[in-house]
Amino acid sequence: MRRKVNEMNKIWVIIKREYIVRVKTRAFLIGTIVSPVILLALVLLPGFLATRGGGERRVTIINQTGDAGLFDSIKSKMEEKSDEIPMSGDQASLRATQFALTHIIAAPTQSLDEIAEQQAEKVRKDSGQTFVILPAGVLDGASAQYYARNISDFSIRKLERAISSSIIERRFARAGFDKGRIEDFTKSVDMETNKITDSEIKKEEGSISFIISFVMLFFIYMSVLFYGIFVMRGVIEEKQSRISEVLVSSVKPTQMMLGKLIGIGLVGLTQMGIWALTAMGLTVFGVSMFASRGINFPNIPPMLFVYFVIYFVLGYFLFATLYALVGATVSSEDEAQQAQMPVTMLLVVPMLIFTVIMNNPNSALSTGLSMVPFFSPTLMMMRIAVVNPPLWQILLSMAIMVATIFGCVWVAGRIYRVGILMYGKRPSLAELGRWLRYS
């Protein structure tokens, strides 16, 4: 009994050292504050810049239809203000863009090529100029023609919608429909999204669920990757400085590994706790984001944060164990870059396939992938954020991860106790097998 207590005390000393040394660093303080700010900036900055950089588009409408009312309708629709809140950079850019329209009546007999060449000279001299030709047959199905230096401009979409809507209205008017009835017939239908949870039905934008799930996916991915590599580099530094040779004289290699894993894991958990408490505070007190635009901070269920922390802890111990194993089998950073690739790819794969989960989170494929222990921290967390799968699936994924962690710790511990004192050539798979059998 006394021996076990003594071993636990040694592990505790290592845990305490690993935790205190890293929490006191500037890198921890800066990372805890700056990382969420950077992520928030990446989400919001494109839209913010777009609202400041819309500029003005000078468009000449060349009308061959002989219907002067068509231009008036287009101009009216271009001046309409949308109440829709922009959710992306291109939508924000459309809202911020100003259009200056001019109207030219052209003879229906004049060829498109002739008109285009005449107007193209103006565009060549002034790249801010653009023009649209509405051919004589546009009311009967012919296509409108847009000409500009830059045809990748997102603002074309607004102009295209205005022209299309105006032409449809003019077709109805030509058929003898009353103008008021035309507006009733052509009025678009908005579809509001309503999320069904276990306890209620609530209105919610689909983009909100996507943002929440992606942010959590990204934070778990980056944190597990960062702290896992942190563990690997710590092992390599101890091998290179020969500190490990001194430490193994007083503690077992397995105790060293567990102490390092738990200590650095607590550092990550502290950081995650600060982020989670901040986000929960914003949710509880209902802090508004872009209050003038009517966008409020989404209401995030507290249990989502609980699951977030659990999957971070499980994901960290799983991958940190593998990274510690890699660190024990190499002698330099250069060797580690190659040796860590299989482990890193296990983290990267979920980032590549997360759209599959988003589109159909309850499919057999999504459920199966989220049960794979190396994918569970990110993919199951995403499913929870999007649809909250049955509790048995969540608990099963956790149980599979725990079993996998114990298996990886057993394997890593046996290889670690040999590899921590090995230098020189990196061992082959056959040699690792021998370490596993004889250690």
Report on the architecture of this protein:
The protein has 439 residues and is α/β, with parallel strands linked by helices. The chain folds into two domains: 279 residues, no CATH class; 135 residues, no CATH class. 67% of the residues lie in helices and 7% in strands. It contains 17 helices and six strands. The strands form two sheets. A four-stranded mixed β-sheet has the order 2-1-3-4, with helices on both faces. Strand 5 and strand 6 form a beta hairpin. Helix 1 crosses helix 10. It is elongated and about 100 Å long. About 5% of the residues have low confidence.
Can you give me a brief rundown of this structure?
The protein has 439 residues and is of the alpha/beta class. It has helices at residues 2-23, 26-52, 68-78, 89-96, 112-125, 156-174, 179-186, 206-240, 243-247, 253-284, 302-329, 333-339, 341-359, 364-371, 376-386, 391-419, 429-438; strands at residues 56-63, 98-105, 129-134, 145-147, 194-196, 201-203.
Helical amount? 55-70%
Spatial strand sequence of the major β-sheet: 2-1-3-4
What coarse outline follows from CA principal-axis ratios? Answer: elongated
Series of H and E elements: HHEHHEHEEHHEEHHHHHHHHHH
Would you report the number of β strands? Answer: 6
Mean pLDDT: 75
Strand content: 5-15%
| Structural domain tally | 2
Query: Over all CA atoms, what is the radius of gyration?
Result: 31 Å
How does the major sheet shape up?
4 strands, mixed
Number of helices: 17
Structural class: alpha/beta
Distance between the termini: 24 Å
Low-confidence stretches: 83-94, 286-295
